[in-house]
Amino acid sequence: MGEAEGDSRLVHTLALSAVKASKHFSLSPSFQRCTFAAWVRENVNKRECCFFEKADVCKCGYSKTDHVDEAIKPEDFTGESWDRHRHIREVPTDAFGDISFGGLGQKTGQYARVSTDTSPEILYQLLTDQWKLSPPNLLISVTGGAKNFYLKARLKTVFHRGLIKVAQTTGAWIITGGTHTGVMKHVGRAVRDYALSSSTQGQIVAIGVATWGIIHNRDALVHPEGCFPAHYVMDIEGQGRLSCLDNNHTHFLLVDDGTQGQYGVEIELRSRLEKCIAGKQSGVTIPVVCVVLDGGPGTLNTIYNAMLNSTPCVILEGSGRIADVIAQVAGLPPGRITIALIHQLMKKFFGEEYERFPDLKIIEWTKKIQDIIRMSQLLTVFRISDDDQGDVDVAILQALLKASRTSESLGIDCWKRQLELAIAWNRVDIAETEIFTEESHWKSSDLHWAMLSALVGNKPQFVRLLLENGVNLRDFLQEEETLCELYKEMPGCFFLGKLAKSRNHSGELITMTHVSGEVRHLLGSFTQPLYLPSTTINQFNMSIEDSSSSVTPRDPGRDLFLWAIVQNNKELAEIAWEQCRDCMSAALAASQILKKLAAEGSDADEAEEMKELANHYEKHAIGVFSQCHNSDEDRARKLLVHASPLWGRTTCLRLALEADDKSFVAQSGVQALLTQIWCGELSVDNPVWRVMVCMVFFPLIYTSFLLVSLYSSPQVKFFWNIVSYFAFLFLFAVVLMIDFQDLPSPLELLLYIWLLSLVCEEVRQLFHDPDGFGFRKKSKMYINDLWNILDVLSIILFIIGLALRLTTVLFYAGKVLLCIDFVVFCLRLMAIFTISKTLGPKIIIVKRMMMDMFFFMFLLSIWVVAYGVAKQGILIHNDNRLDWILRGAVYEPYLIIFGDFPQNIEYSGFDLNSCSMNGTDPLKPKCPVLNESQTPAFPEWLTIIMLCVYLLFANILLLNLLIAIFNFTFQEVQDNTDRIWKFQRYELIKEYHSRPAAPPPFIILSHLYIFIRNVVLCRPPIVCKEFKNELLESEEEELLSWEALMKDRYLQSTQQEQSQSMERRILDTAQNQSPAVDYGQSEISGFCSKRSTVTESATIFFIRSHIFIIIFQIFHMSLLPLVCLHFYSALTTTDESPDTYVSTSEKEDGFHVNARQFHYPGSKVTRFPVPDEKVPWEASISLSVTRDVCKMSVCLMCVSSVIRNPQGRTGIRGRGTLSRLGPNLHVDLVLTRWVVSCPLSLPSLFQVFEGYVDDCRNTDNAWVETTVLNIHLDRSSPLMVDISNMAVSAYGSLLWQEVSGRARLSSNQRESLRQIAELHNRKF
């Protein structure tokens, strides 16, 4: 046995070590089961009886066969009798693993048999670490009726829907009894309905804590090594007094105390487990709520104990029995809840069961119900009205929020606790209705933690709600650490991987400067860094999973928007974009960043999402610019070219071009700006003929118009360059055809000079970089332009041809090459049509068709080569002339496509004189293989069939395919050619805008001037404001403010369009009528109607009382240990009629409450229950039994008749833990001062309160009386010096504290402070 246990431990140790060593690797299921089994055997035990007492059934409830061999004693054994504590022991559990219920859907779960003494921490580890459950944000404990429980159909539907909705939206665990009876069965069915209706959502966790000894068919769950799975059969009809497990629960903890057939064994362990889970923290403390349906006296005790532990309870009215009793009296004051009333309600709702209840229990239950009603902050009654089904999920969450409001006495900020819960549950509807009400006003700083939590937790609706309710982004992101924390907590994404790989070693410190570098890479090198290096070191360790920031943000909206964009978070980015100042630049920058990330990423799905989001922000930019252009065209154009200080001092137009946002550039406003730049200072309404006439006959121009303005217009430059290019081609043609001499003629020399000017212009274009791209980026852009490629090719061919032409040997070859170069120059002529609105789009279509043609020729070449090689091999034998081989294998098959059919493939067309027998004649092809009769020997039928097949596929199939491809390309491109042409028009306009005014060859003079000015004289380049304009700060601020107004109009119009669309109405109607439990869909319509364009909203603050306090408690006598307690054993009452109940209810409810708590503090003594109606000494009461529990030599009977509590009975006699019988006098001294000095010369003394205090230590014969005194001091008083010294010497135990309702004090002290605040006319 020892060796086996040692081996088991060894296996477990090795398994755990392997798991730790390979956390990032996928483990096989068998290895995982082995590890899990080893952990369970080491940490989880069961209980079993080790002594079988001679009988048919042992006192533990199990038969003889169910005991281990050592528990069965010999027949003549006459030793000790069975004892629970000595004869039930703990051994490693033998029932754990997976459970399969079979049937429809093959429902499976996980289970474990555990001892009643198992540590809750072990069970929590089992649930989270071994069963891989995520820690809950909420714990829902469902309790109530177990047997003969019937739930009305309407209430059942509402309960199912609400329970699952709250569990789904908050990530809650549901804990029940786990059996297929009563309320547990309804919870299971709710889980089942959810699983059937929503297969995409996460699993609802329903944990059943049941007693092992009452489970029917539990033998199927037993196996020493665990069952994976155990096949469990639900035999409802044959279960008898036992119960079957519910097949809809997901996890089971089967509590074993070593007995069989005893219900309720699991209650204590379940209570400890719930308390343990509630003590855990996953961001915030996990709250617990108790949901009650039906139930009997045991359920009442559960409710009472839960509420004493500050656990809120939700009672479902209409579910029956004790739930209905509490629901009936929930609206009554405690004084009206009498014993008689409880008798009536018990009889009404319990029926025949009521007859078995003794009067003493009714009295106890009355007292408990009164205490439950007094704790109204913890009690929520859910009622279904006739016209509204209500929402159980809202009732559950409201109960938790209502309970958190009253936790201020524990020192917890009420509103903060409520907001923590709402954020953890992701229930913005609850926060909106229960927390952010019209009466509430918030400081921005008070909500910064919530904003950070919502951003990190990806809760965009909460982010929007917080912005609407006072969060100022500038204050929130004022500190660098906040932005650092956001990047540190950013979820794993492609940008995060890029940021980590940007460093040489993983784990190297990353700052915001590194983030800026990556963003600059995504935006383009022409932008300036968004974050400059900071003098303050603010770094953190960065691995592949986290990032950082290190610079004070310049604009909080931009910083938040950039943080959301790089992680491809659409919802958060949308909210942040609404807060951006330069929103149009932000949208275009987002489009560029997302498209660049999509191009560099490897995940196709993520890349597609990024492209969709990029298009979304392009639409945003279009919408804002359209609003701007419709409002003020001049301002809109200024927006396009102003250098944005928030986005690296680049322009909206440049960002749109980099992002390839063709739709944005194609807008009429952008094209109007480009047309204005194209025309320069000329009117855009001038027809072309008028401009050309003025170019030639410039004296016709008005004298007031400068010639420089005319000839510096890009339009005029373009026309002159066209004329110059035609002249160049004419000169080139003349030289090639007429004047190409051995030595270059004057015309040819002019051609060389002309070409030199073209070369200089191309060099100037390559190095001209007004946007600051850098040579590498500029070169890449230059090569990517097709026309530039033709320019370079033509120049290279011309230089090579010129070099060959100047030699004697290769003179003719040089001319041939120059002739080919002329063709390239002519093709370059097509670029002049790109400016034309009619022909420009057609050039784009031609380009696309050329791409199609290239891929078609690749496909066609397969057939050409296949037929040509086969034909050549059949006809010709061993021809070694390469030119004739290529002619026969490639050229002739290609000509066949155009109708030039060969004559040598059939006998009738064969001519011996047309070929060479041995292939010796270079001008004739080689003859085909001949037979003896000097006729072709090849099979004619085969060559003809091959030709027919070739013509069928090449001429008919492939050519028609090419036509179809061209047609498809034309139809596809035709719709976008105008947009593409407008986009490409920018580069042509910018080229001619920067081009010198003189056309070639005179342009070489301009190049010489530019070289001397920029290189020799080193003067700065001339700044051009047409494409990039630097504005003054005041002008910039005014322009961005106007843009923000236009953005608000755009968002408002967009929301109006959405609300008015028929599709939106259908969606809203479906959401309102659908009984689905998906919270996200049900809450969208209400939330989207809200506007959230808060930018720099002012926060409103309450003016609080500026009174500070120090509290001293002075006791006349110190507390003594417990010496004597007497309590009542029974009270007898007379029958009361409804009339008596009415008269009793009319009495004032001024009874002490704390003094009648069931459990007396500092002892295990329980008070006798004293309902309100029995508190006055005048109420009739008789003592049947009095038990003395102390050895005090005082006659308590005599004391009781002389010294009585002035407020009535408490349920216990004697002095308890108080120091004396009768009144125990206390004095509370409260020192106050003003925050700001007031003209008070002397301290003021006030008596605030004097009298009886409702203290939990009070008894029938001893009670506490307190006098509260207030000394109000002036800040300049000499006494303040002594008090300050006393506070310093107290080392923090004595502090000045603001008078506020949030002070951490007892209820009595809080009431005293409230009276003091009223005394000084200050709000508490």
Task: Describe this entry's structure for a reader.
The protein is of the alpha/beta class. It contains 47 helices and 24 strands. Strand 3 (96-102) and strand 4 form a beta hairpin. Helix 28 (668-679) crosses helix 38. The longest helix is centred in the C-terminal third of the chain and has 55 residues, at 940-994. 36% of the residues are buried. Mean pLDDT is 78; it is low at 1-25, 408-412, 535-553, 1073-1148 and 1183-1200. This is Transient receptor potential cation channel, subfamily M, member 2. Residues 110-328 form the TRPM SLOG domain. It is a multi-pass membrane protein.
Distance between the termini: 70 Å
- The residue fraction in helices comes out at 40-55%
Q: Average pLDDT, to the nearest integer? A: 78
Q: Rounded to an integer, what's the Rg over CA atoms?
A: 46 Å
Strand content: 5-15%
The tally of strands reads 24
Shape: elongated
How many individual helices?
47
The helix-and-strand class reads alpha/beta
Low-confidence stretches: 1-25, 408-412, 535-553, 1073-1148, 1183-1200
Main pleated-sheet profile: 10 strands, mixed
For the biggest β-sheet, the strand order reads 8-3-4-9-7-6-5-12-13-14
Membrane topology: Multi-pass membrane protein
Keywords: Calcium, Calcium channel, Calcium transport, Cell membrane, Ion channel, Ion transport, Membrane, Transmembrane, Transmembrane helix, Transport
Family: Belongs to the transient receptor (TC 1.A.4) family. LTrpC subfamily. TRPM2 sub-subfamily.
Pfam family, one: LSDAT_euk
